[in-house]
Each structure stands twice: as C-alpha cells, then as structure tokens.
C-alpha cells in the first residue's frame, strides 16, 4: 500500500505540474514573452556567482512533455517493477533523472547546463546498471564513457567562453556569429550533441543502454537523455556556421540510414525500438542542420509521445512472455492481448507517419521541406530510403509480435490485468493520436507554404508503400531466404551489426590501452622494475645481513683475515 501511494503521489504531482507548465507555455506563445529569472547565489569581493533561468514557450512546453511522460512512466512502473524490493529507490532515480533534464531545459548558462548534463549521465549510469549483472555493468560503463566525451566538450566550451564575460550563451549568439572563436565553440557544442544523441560514430551506446528496465527506456528514448543533445543544438542553432551544418547533415543522414538498416536485421524487441529512436534522432539532427530548428523541435515533441508508448507496449509484452525479448518467441499477441496490441499498432503507425496521427504532422512536413530544399540527389535518396526502411522494420515487427504464429512454450498465461500499466499506455495513446495536430496549431501560427510537383508530393506515400512491400517480403520468406544468398552474406552481416560500430568502438578502442596496461604490469611493475627494484633490494640486504652475521659469528677468523688483507694491501702500495 505504501508503494502504491508513493507512486500515485509522484504521478499526480508531476501531471499537475505538467498541466501548469503547458498552460504557461500557451500564454507565452500567445503573448510572445520570454522571462529571465536571475538571482545571486554567492557574492565574494567583486565576484558574483548568479543562477539564471530561461522561461519561454519552448522550455515550458518541453518541460511539460517531460513531466507528463515521466508521470505516466512512474504510474506504469508500479506494476512493472512489482517484484522489485527497492521500488522507492528506482522512483527516486527516475525523479532525479527528470530533475536533471528540467535543469538542462531551463538553463541559458553553460555552468548550469553542465550540471544538468552531468546529472543525466550519472543517473543514466545508475539506471542502466540497475539489474546488477555483467551485461548491465558493461553497458553502463560503455554508456557513461561515451557520454563523457560530450562532457569534456562542454567543459572546453566553458573554458573558451571565459573571455566573453559571462557563460550565459543566449546573450552572445548574434554577436558571436562573426567571431572566429565561435567556430571552435560551435564545433565543441555539436560534438557534445552528437555524443548525447548518439550520432555516428558514437551510436553504439544507445542499443547497449537497453540493459536498463523498460520504464527507464521509455523515458530515456522519448523525452530525456538522447533528446538533450538535440535540444542543446536547437538553442545554439543561430550561431552555427554553414560548413559545420553541412558536416552535421552528412553525419545525421548516415546515422538515420545505418540505424534503419540495422533494425531490419535485429531480433531483440527493445533493440529494434532503440534503433528506431536512433533513426528519428538522425532525422531531427538533419532537419536542424538544414536551418529548420522549429521543425526539429516539433518532431522532438511528437516523437516523444509515440516512442514512450511504443516502449511501454514492448514492456507489457516482455512482462507477459516471461521476460523473453527475442521477437521470434512471440506472435499472434493481437488475440491474447488486444488492448496492448491496439496501443502498439497506434504507436507504430504514428512512427511510420500514418495520416492524422502524431508522427504524420511532423514527419510529412519534414519530408516535404526536404523536397523543397536545395539538397543533392544522394542526400535526397538517403532521406526517403531511410523513411522506407522505417515502414519496413515496423511491419516486420507487426508480423513477428502481433500476427505470426505463437512460438512461446505450451504452458503460458498472457493477461492484461495490471490496470496501472494499462492506464499509463492509454494516457499516452490519447496524446499519440491528438498531440501532433494540437502542437501543429500551437507552434506554427503561419503555415509552411510548400509548392511541389506531383511526383515529389507523392514521394512519401510511394516510399512508404515500397517499404511496406519490402517488409512483407521480409516476414513472408524470413531472413533465412536472404542468408541463403551467399553473395549478400557479408552485406547482411555488415548491416545487421550497425556497420561493426559496437565492435570498433568497444573492443577497437579499449583493446590497445588494456593490452598495453597488462604488458606494462607484466614487464615493468612485475618484471624488470621488480627484478632490479624491490626484489633486488631484498636480495642485496639478505646477502649483506648474512655476511654481517658470518663476521659476528667468527670473530678471530675475521680479524686475522682482515689483518692479512690489510698487510698485503700495504705491501703492494709500498
């Protein structure tokens, strides 16, 4: 009873705060107002340390979504983590996670951004290693070390901004656009955003972080942690030079393509959804690098709604099939779990961009803006091919989880009796259906005017149908058909392993330093330095002490020998 009351209190509190901040963001949008709240924390001699908060429609709206999704995740966790003996600790970690994200959102100051940024990294490590096994520990270390690169980049940004007189970057963006120092600061900020949002070559930690409990994955992959890098780049987007944006565009489109391709050859349910998140992050980064920060923020919010729902549905499925995550053990769950299957289909259709769901309003608008922009043919092809891959792996997931033959053990019990999990999913399903149109009306006062030829206007639909056809082939013949084509075997292995990125950036990075350390211990600490150092000193002292003992035990002999040696020495000297 104590657990239930604590979770319900957290749910009600966060949902109330979410409604309040959403109302305030609507007021800020209508009145076009921005508030800076600043107070002095410490004043010492002539130095002042002040805390600044940026309250505008963007920060309030993002805070509202973070608190709304986290409240439903906490409600969902009540039943999902029922067997856990330390549920309160888990909820406190989630609340610390949300608090770090809120600190990052409302901070225009690089110091307070670093506090929120590091808070996200630290708490994410604690949550990834929550189950305390070897796989979780390896994934946690890998996640933490990958994110430390971004932390170091932010520390270097703070060092470069010392000469500006303040770390509140929001005051200097227009001024710094013409300064050479801004090139270095912009590159470091983009590096930090790439590590936190898992762009190539820092993509391998995102699927590895799936070792965390599923409610944490729902929160991390929707509105916190991975979106922190995108949000930081949206805030800094005015100051990026064009050559740096072109670099980011290439990286993000390749990330989108690589993750979409890898998801079609993956069998772990949570990893498929994680690669889907990676693909959507690449889409946000790419449209941001083309100069449309408002569209990137729009897709950030709509993606948060349906991706959290998708992870919740996956958690319900995993919970019922006795913690199997391999989709080949599932199948035909639409009969056994109809409500979960309905939520699963709504979230997946929103991911695919089904008309009038949340994902349609942002994704279709982004693809039409891309068609209208001045892009080369290669980037245009990768954009739409990656969109087709999204439809492909979504329908492959449909087949394996909802439609195919049931492949679990003969003795099973599938049920939807956990009402808190159901309420959490239904709450998000409402937002996944209505959230896109609501945000579209709220954010864009003036609609985008897009005039395209008929074939380019129909390209999203054509590519979606092609992706559906490819997905149907995949689940009709299965991957064994493709593995039988030996000439494509290497290509399939290359694509399914995320371009060997986990291998390169785990073993490839750590093998040489660890081997060097082992050899240095063997050859230096336990080798030559030991032989000539401590061990050699021990042998010398032992020899000297035994010689001294011999002198002390043979007094007459010793004196006679010394006398004769001295006498001979004197005779030779004469």
Automatic annotation (TrEMBL):
Single GO MF annotation: NADH dehydrogenase (ubiquinone) activity
Ranges for domain NADH:quinone oxidoreductase/Mrp antiporter transmembrane: 107-389
GO biological process: ATP synthesis coupled electron transport; electron transport coupled proton transport
InterPro entries in the cross-refs: NADH_DH_su5_C, ND/Mrp_TM, NU5C-like, Proton_antipo_N
NADH-Ubiquinone oxidoreductase (complex I) chain 5 N-terminal domain mapped to chain residues: 46-90
Superkingdom of origin organism: Eukaryota
Membrane-traversing stretches: 49-75, 87-106, 152-172, 184-206, 218-237, 243-265, 272-292, 304-321, 333-358, 378-399, 420-443, 455-475, 487-505, 556-573
EC number(s) on file: 7.1.1.2
UniProt main location, coarse: mitochondrion
Span of domain NADH dehydrogenase subunit 5 C-terminal: 393-574
This protein's UniProt keywords: Electron transport, Membrane, Mitochondrion, Mitochondrion inner membrane, NAD, Respiratory chain, Translocase, Transmembrane, Transmembrane helix, Transport, Ubiquinone
Function: Core subunit of the mitochondrial membrane respiratory chain NADH dehydrogenase (Complex I) which catalyzes electron transfer from NADH through the respiratory chain, using ubiquinone as an electron acceptor. Essential for the catalytic activity and assembly of complex I.
Protein's UniProt name: NADH-ubiquinone oxidoreductase chain 5
Species the sequence originates in: Creobroter gemmatus
